[in-house]
Amino acid sequence: MAETSPNPFIFPSYLPFSSTFNRFSQWRAELGLPNPGTVENLQKEVKATHLTNYAFDGGRADLTKSMSMNPLFQVTHSFALGSQSMPPSYNFGAIYASERVFLQGGVDHEGNVSARCNQGWTANHVSKMQAQISQQPGHNLLQLEHDYQGSDFNLNLKAANPWPTDLTGIFVGSYLQSITKNLALGTECVYQRPTPTTSDLVATYLAKYTSSDKSWIATAQIQPAGILQATYWHKLSEKVEFAADLQLMASPIRRDALATLGAKYDLRLSTFRAQLDSTGKVSALLEQRFTPTFAFLMSGEIDHFKNSAKVGVGVMIESSALSNEELEAQMMAMQQQQQQQSFPAPS
Amino acid sequence: MPSEDTKERIAKVIEVGRTVFHYAWIPVIIYVGFTRSNPQPSLIKLISPLA
């Protein structure tokens, strides 16, 4: 994500202010600031190290079948059973990804459809669509997003549930700019318009500091209403990562804080995550790969203050519809393509 | 601002579009994946994970 690509945007010389802008653009390109990444990915490393998004309970089985690697096409059947918090479910998912287009769809046993579509118009402009449609009338969500990666900044515009006639919905604009080679500052403004007459604007200020050798990243998100989220991620070695997360709410109505410390160990055939919470929860998640097609998941969480525990067990089976020769041919075609062109980031 | 009639029509179009999207999204992805994937797979591979 931190590539320096100093190609200044030059205006033609017959436009007014063009020479000033060209000089500014040249100075900016010479600074050689890296791209800070998107605002959504501000805490990506911390979210990948903590197991809050990966923990589950009950039994789970995921069967993935890939039909093709080069335009990636995969079909997944997921079964979940025995969870204390969720009813038994079956989910069918399909993913299609080529260089510029990414399509993902999933359907539930109840008929709820989730959809994602990313279209990369150029290497810097990506439009994304995300939708969740359910049988119950009030639970539908449509989110449209456009993301622009500049040489040293990122601009992202989102609209959630926009209604064309009266423009209600939630609109989010975010901007993140590299100030120095290590520091990036930005803002995210959320404009909520639930009815045509009421609207509300909330601004969040963001900061991200990456160390020079990219071994640690510290971020902070602050809202003037009194909400602070600060994270710290450190890559101790190739196999060990550590992350800490602090969320503080200091408004007059509510005072709350949550601190999470977690570590991730990436071993050759397994990934192990362990986490400790300030609410007294200790959790661990193990993902062990036995063969290239079979992986075993085990998730456990103990809440010491409530004296309760949740355990989850899962299997992930990935089979490929391609024979060995076809698989090798597609791997080679993919490597050749990677050498020739650059991919837009489809996520 | 559009008239009440136009607003109702737009709301109806959006509702029909939502229903079409609801039923057609997964089949569209499967169709695109089938026709464009490199060794074109056979239909049985979609249903049975063992094939």
Automatic annotation (TrEMBL), chain A:
- The organism's superkingdom is given as Eukaryota
Q: Which UniProt keywords apply?
A: Ion transport, Membrane, Mitochondrion, Mitochondrion outer membrane, Porin, Protein transport, Transmembrane, Transmembrane beta strand, Transport
Q: Which InterPro entries match?
A: Porin_dom_sf, Porin_Euk/Tom40, Tom40
What membrane topology is annotated for this entry?
A: Multi-pass membrane protein
Record-level GO cellular component terms? mitochondrial outer membrane; pore complex
Spell out the Pfam families in the cross-references: Porin_3 (PF01459)
UniProt similarity note: Belongs to the Tom40 family.
Q: What is this protein called?
A: Translocase of outer membrane 40 kDa subunit
Automatic annotation (TrEMBL), chain B:
Asked if the keyword Transmembrane belongs to this entry, the reply reads yes
- In Gene Ontology terms, what is a biological process of this protein? protein import into mitochondrial matrix
Q: How does it sit in the membrane?
A: Single-pass membrane protein
The places in or outside the cell where this protein is found are: Mitochondrion outer membrane
> Which domain of life does the protein's organism represent?
Eukaryota
GO CC terms on record? mitochondrial outer membrane translocase complex
User: Where is it mostly found?
Assistant: mitochondrion
Q: Where is the signal peptide?
A: none
What protein family is recorded?
A: Belongs to the Tom7 family.
Under which name does UniProt file this protein?
Tom7-domain-containing protein
